[in-house]
Amino acid sequence: MNVELRDYETAFAQDLKMDIAEFFAFHGDLVGAGEEARAQAEREAAETLEDWQRDSSALYVILCDGGYAGFLRLDYRGDQVAWIEDLYVRLALRGQGVASAAIGQAEKIVAARPGYTALCMDVVPRNEAAMRLYYRLGYDSVSLLTLRKEFGENHRDRKTEILGRTFKI
Predict the structure, then answer these.
(1) Is 160 domain-assigned?
(2) How do residues 88-99 score in pLDDT, each as one tens digit?
(3) DSSP for 12-50?
(4) Distance CA 45, CA 73 (A)
(5) pLDDT tens digits for 51-108?
């Protein structure tokens, strides 16, 4: 299997919009956000793609054996650390090493930049498949926790212990 990160080109816009919507809908599904959240993700996908092209991040399409497989977005924060902001591989291609290969290529891109010493990513704790993948790839240092306060209904019904405190995930 040949996996390649390629700079985003408008020829991939339709695929990317569909996958952006699916990416955000998946995260909504993790907390039972429902069909309205999925519909909102679909409505906002084109705007998100436009935003990503305007911001300082680097947007890549993931190609697998020459065909579109997903996307990866890098952001360079400061002059030492880069972040994988978003990573999505189409469902039919998961479990085949596509994400691992894409992350490996992103690591090479970042490591080649003078002064960059680390690559980080945020991950939703409920996304256990992603957590297992990232850990297997060597992402085993916790450097930042994002704490969240819900102003409406909180769909997070699972809990975890961190440093002796109970948090909803």
Answers:
(1) no
(2) 999 999 999 999
(3) GHHHHHHHHHHHHHHHHHHTT--HHHHHHHHHHHHHHHH
(4) 15
(5) 999 888 999 999 999 999 999 999 998 899 999 999 999 999 999 999 999 999 999 9
Q: Spell out the alpha helix ranges (H) of the chain.
A: 13-30, 35-54, 98-111, 128-136
Distance between CA atoms of 145 and 143, rounded to whole angstroms? 7
Helices 35-54, 13-30: crossing angle, 10 deg rounding: 130
> How many independent structural domains does the chain possess?
1
Task: Please name the amino acid found at residue 14.
Answer: Q
Residue 143, classed as helix, strand or coil, is coil
CATH number, domain with residue 78: 3.40.630.30
Tokens describing residue 140: 């085993």
Residue with tokens 């955000």: 24
Burial state string for 111-122 with b = 16 or more CB within 10 A and e = fewer than 16: eeeeebeebbbe
User: If residue 63 lies in a helix (H) or strand (E), which one and from where to where?
Assistant: strand 58-64
Q: Which residues contact 166 (CB under 8 A, 6 or more apart)?
A: 159, 160
**Angle, CA of 92, 51 and 66, to the nearest 5°:** 35
Boundaries of domain holding 33: 3-142
